[in-house]
Amino acid sequence: MRKPRRTLDWKEYENINKYASSEKRLKKFSTEGYLKVALIYPNSYKTLAGNLGFHRVFEVANSIPGVSCERFFYDKRFNRFYSLDSLRPLDEFKIWMFSISYELDFFNLMDILKKLRIPLLVHKRGERHPLIVIGGPLVTINPNLFVHIADIIYHGEAEVNLSHLLNKISESLHKEKEKLLKKVSELENISVPILNKMAHEEAIYRDVIHDPAGSVFLSKFGEFGDVFLIEVGRGCFRGCKFCTIGNLYGYFRPIRVESFIKKVEDTLSQIDNIRDFKMGLVAPAVNDHPKFDEILDYLERRNIRFSLSSLRVDKIDEKLLKGLLRSGQNMLTIAPETGSEKMREFLNKNISDEEIYDKVSMARKLGFKKIKLYLMIGLPEETKEDLELSAKMIDRISSMGFNEIVISVNPFVPKPGTPLENHKFLSIKELLEKQEVLKVKLKNVKVNFESLRESFIQYKLDHLDSRKSLKVIQVFDANGKQETFKLLKEMK
């Protein structure tokens, strides 16, 4: 390994070492495998540590004989990018595998390539350059973003074909790149754009019901602290019209209770002080699990504190709320999306106002002191009256006696592959007018509005075709992020 020489490189090295040394590794992997793979998360360490999908990709890759997969993350101050697992610099790796979840991380991905002098466009790279593999949720939303950058695009869930992909790469590593790419293009869920081979299906892991993903490392610097994350279900059956999960990421697969318990018990056997142990249950709607009561019984029996990634408000019950209170939580988080029943019906989120009020009132009576609500504005066919109904809902909840009410308001972003994909993203002017309606009505409530500019950029990136994505990459390469934002704003 090459040690850093410059002061800036040492600072970067020490920064990464701080995160690496903070971790408790629940699974230990060798860094001496024949095929050395860099798994890159183009966002902060905080976000990386809290992303259960990234944990699973790291685990799957390292379960393959002969493969050593090491983790990297993004910081705009970095220039060298050192591994969290061996502190080797990124340019010592021949396989660069990006896991990309969020639209704005597309720019971070390109920034990493630029800083290490890797041509952004695949047809400009040669044999000496690393092999660029890109996967993750954003690939499912819009693969067009990556067809000019990636040597290989992986579509879908890692458990299905990632081992086959890395084995094929390993077998052909010393061959010409074209021969290697022809070999991996045989896999159904793999796209190789430079060979004009595009996948027509996503890999869906059916056996996840027996094999839930769980954290493979814990860190106090993670988004949720040193909480052990474990999935209780994958996919969704609800079919909300605005949501990518139920429409793009596979059918509903609840984890078998016995598999969940085994995963937790295996983890507890590695924990020194179980009193400090806390779990985060992960699913699109955790309490949609058909046997969630059994999971709650187990957690109470073992006196395990827990939190939820998200929940379905109409399925909240006293048992769940008491379990959250026992776990030290006094804030309830729900996502009614809108205060208008008419709009919720339109979105196929069929929850009545009274169901919302009943569950929120139950939470307050049991002892919850804070509540957070997620709302959307700019929905198709939304009227001023619908916005005023959202304000009325918040006013009624405010009257229930919570010490703190936090409202998070997000603009509606039409996503490809959903029933609302062809609806427009409203202009910034229109969205500001809608924000103003809520501000006038909610003077005594804390309201956080998500950045309209960033939401607009998300929308543009989600809907770029191949030709426009090429132009975006070229402008970023030549002029940087701000000029690219200007281009996106001008694009029709």
Number of domains: 3
Broad shape? globular
DSSP strand tally: 17
Q: Which percent range describes the beta-strand content?
A: 15-25%
The CATH class of the largest domain:
Alpha Beta
Q: Into which percent range does the helicity of residues fall?
A: 25-40%
Write a concise synopsis of the structure shown.
39% of the residues lie in helices and 16% in strands. It is of the alpha/beta class.
Structure description:
- The chain folds into three domains: 7-195, Rossmann fold (3-Layer(aba) Sandwich); 227-328, Transcription Regulator spoIIAA (2-Layer Sandwich); 330-450, Transcription Regulator spoIIAA (2-Layer Sandwich), CATH 3.30.750.200.
- It is of the alpha/beta class and 492 residues long.
- Strands 3-2-4-5-6-7 form a six-stranded mixed sheet.
- The chain is built from 18 helices and 17 strands.
- Helix content is 39%, strand content 16%.
- The protein is globular.
- β15 (370-377), α14 (384-398) and β16 form a beta-alpha-beta unit.
- It has helices at 7-22, 45-49, 52-62, 105-115, 137-141, 158-172, 177-184, 244-248, 257-268, 292-301, 318-326, 341-346, 353-366, 384-398, 428-441, 452-462, 466-479, 481-490; strands at 24-25, 35-41, 67-73, 95-99, 131-135, 152-154, 190-191, 217-218, 228-231, 233-234, 253-254, 278-282, 305-308, 331-337, 370-377, 404-411, 446-449.
